[in-house]
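Appendix B: complex inputs.
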Amino acid sequence: GQNIDQPTEMTATEGAIVQINCTYQTSGFNGLFWYQQHAGEAPTFLSYNVLDGLEEKGRFSSFLSRSKGYSYLLLKELQMKDSASYLCAVLGGSYIPTFGRGTSLIVHP
Amino acid sequence: DVKVTQSSRYLVKRTGEKVFLECVQDMDHENMFWYRQDPGLGLRLIYFSYDVKMKEKGDIPEGYSVSREKKERFSLILESASTNQTSMYLCASSFPGQGNEAFFGQGTRLTVV
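Resulting structure:
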């Protein structure tokens, strides 16, 4: 089975940096995705990690440690529009994505 | 622009009705998925399909069935709707294998009364 854990809610200030963590236990591992979902909208792809290390893409970065079963999404220079849910999804041995419960990020002025 | 289209954005059905949720993708993806999303529970996989006429149960298949007669279309069927099936239903599609992200439809908010 798969177990994916991420915080339920986080708050941060506009312009700040926030790190959203995701820990997982899976049978087989073929990568980890981060998605962003604004209220009432579909999830959209942010990043994919399959090797250990940091992947940077503009204001967003994602880190993976396979030995620790751990990933984080780092958001820099926060903007109000970054208020959304952030979903961690693991691609297990079956290549089917399993999602965590999502982290609701609230950015305030 | 890639697209996954779900037939209805909002749907209200009565208990016991048979309900069809349709999903069409235009990206020639082999994989298609149906998830339901509930507050505090996240996205949970109901069924997925990796090819035409192929289907596999996900984590919560009870009370649901699916149909994939054509590559681009994946239908979710509630045989006899119940109030505990009130939820947001999300369809997604992807290419198989590593590194291929899923593309999601806008979702169908189903209310069973």
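The radius of gyration of chain A is 13 Å.
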